[in-house]
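note to self: the first set is below, dont mix up w the second
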Amino acid sequence: MKVVHLTSAHPRYDTRIFHKQCRSLAAAGYPVTLVVADGEGDEERDGVSIVDVGRLDGRLNRVVKTTRLVLERARQLDADLYHLHDPELMPVGRRLKRLGKRVIYDAHEDLPRQMLAKHYLGKITRQVLSRGVEAYQNRVCRHFDAIVAATPHIRDRFEEFHPRVVDVNNFPMQGELDGAPDARLTASAGERPAVCYIGGIAAIRGIREIVRAMELAENDCRLQLAGDFKVLALEQEVMTYTGWSRVESHGYLDRAGVRRVLASSIAGLVTLHPTINYLDALPVKMFEYMSAGLPVIASDFPLWREIVEGSDCGLCVDPLDPQAIAEAIDFIVSHPERAREMGENGRRAVTERYNWQQEELKLLDTYRDLSR
């Protein structure tokens, strides 16, 4: 069965789930092509043929012109099954179904609830937009052959109207980010301990509170930032905070760079704000911290608290309270043995449950069902 994965919004290879899906399917013997729109040309990687339709700047271009280019290339490839990874590709899926193709829609986010979090829109506008998006999504997706959901929460919503839904979570590969916790938790003479934040940097992801926490932390700890600021003005703002003097900003790092940051840190921060699209999310970075043997300092959301406290792998705090974040950092620095224990508990939880090797089995089962 020839398989094509389609995306119009993302680069070809990073930590996103469709990269893991393509590699797993190729390793299982499926001929897999990934269609992207990043302007980096065609190539073959990890057994996956990557086809580039070119990059167009601007959201309108992506939604209209890039989507048209993706559909054209998808038809040319003439696959048996198409796996869609962006909401704007739902119309593409409809066209492919009319051509007699099998189609999987991958719901990376709870799109209707995400609309409610767009506070630059008025309250009534958000509500109307959310209802309209949900009605369209449900009407279109009920005709697809299967739905893959990024979290159990999203799975439950699609199960209300679709008979074949599976959650395939973006958990880490076992061993990919292993570090040396003993070295991390016993700093060399003259070396300050470090906590880290890895991922896109934005106000809604807690950067203001994290940098302010560095100012309040009593221990001489530094913060390693690995990621790009989404808004230049925000970067310029937080650089004026007193806590910025304790920050090392690395910018975007590849996986080797991320591994180095994790190996030189004693805890990982994932203190996202309590917005509707984060409360039921499963942030991949939290599980990557756990995989690397780092205790996590996480937002005190019910789902996240269940994971962190259930695995005894870190501390949950109010993400809007810099003092609470600072106190959690101080605890980790001041209690290295307890921090080491939490880190090992997190690594064990990933080994036993929160890992890609188990998630890919659900994906492969879905593909086998569709190929019968």
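second set (the one i keep forgetting abt)
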Amino acid sequence: MIRPDLSVITNISLDHTNLLGNTLAEIAFEKAGIIKPNTPVIIGERQPETDPVFIKKAKEQKAPLVFAEDLLQTSNIIKKSNFLQVDIYQQKETLLKNLKLDLSGSYQLKNIITVLETVESLRKNGYHIPEDAIYQALKNVKKLTGLQGRWQTLAKAPLIICDTGHNKAGINEVLHNIEQTKYQTLHMVIGMVKDKDINGVLQLLPKNAHYYFCTPQLERALPSKELAEQAALYHLKGSAYATVAAALNAAKEKAKKEDLIFVGGSTFVVAEII
């Protein structure tokens, strides 16, 4: 048996439903499998459908459980250049001020709470993690880990941004970031794989964008023509392209300097252009 020092579960959304289940509670049950006996567990977000599942499993395993969002909050949120700046506080007491995150998507505000509560748990378990290390690490996540594709700017004039969000929760966060971005016309290069909640994602996408449907190069990919046909049911208009590169090139040709081109819908789509 794996014996971790602690277990961490972030947000739960409908994803990999063919393997994990068709409801949030079913998916949470599978995720709760990482909760080990007498081992602290940190849950990133509270959700009415999933909280009872985690609480029950933690009680069975006699594992101390905390919900990070109950303990830590964010404030004074500012986007500066390629950074997201934020203060972290607990019960109105500021714990970290002017914390800079090089992962600048708004959903990182949820992740950072989970990360910092994890750090606190590790400290209680004997790990030495100085405050300066937290500042430096979160400011240099991309460099330290090689992580890419999280609300990443690829070019300017026109602005091209990609994001690997591929389920309803991820797409909602993408749309929130798009709303906060200045542009004249929105161009969406979108591709998906067959085992995702395709209709759930399509119904969220903005109807006033120009769409370039594409097929990522893997067996599970949903052919772009089929994706375009399903998208049309939700009044999303655009053309189908055989590859991600062809779709992106078409968007570049049509977009003006003041426009925004977003690339996403699947991690595999993003992987082909970065």
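remember for set 2: The mean pLDDT is 91.
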